[in-house]
Amino acid sequence: MSKSVNFAAIDLGAESGRVVQGKITDDKLELIEQHRFPNGPIRTNDELHWDVLRLWTEMKRGVAKTAEAGGELKGIGIDTWGVDFGLLDKNDTLICNPFHYRDARTNGILEKAFEIVPREEIFDRTGIQFMQFNTIFQLLSMGLADSPLLDVAETMLMMPDLFNFWFTGRKCCEFTEATTSQAYNPRTGGWAIDMIEKLGVPAKIFAHIVQPGTVLGPLRDDVRDEIGIGNVPVIAPATHDTGAAVAAVPATDDQNWVFLSSGTWSLMGAEVKNPIIDDQSLKFNYTNEGGVEGTYRFLKNIMGLWLVQECRRTWQREGKDYSYGELAEMAAAAKPFMAIIDPDETSFIAPGDMPARISDYCKKTSQAIPEGPGEIVRVCLESLAMTYRQTLDRIEACTGRKAEVIHIVGGGTQNTHLCQWAADATGLTVVAGPIEATAAGNVAVQAVAAGVLPDIKTAREMIRRSFDVVVYEPADSGRWEEPYKRFQELRI
Question: Of 105, 146, 339, 404, whose CB count within 10 A is highest?
Answer without folding.
Answer: 339
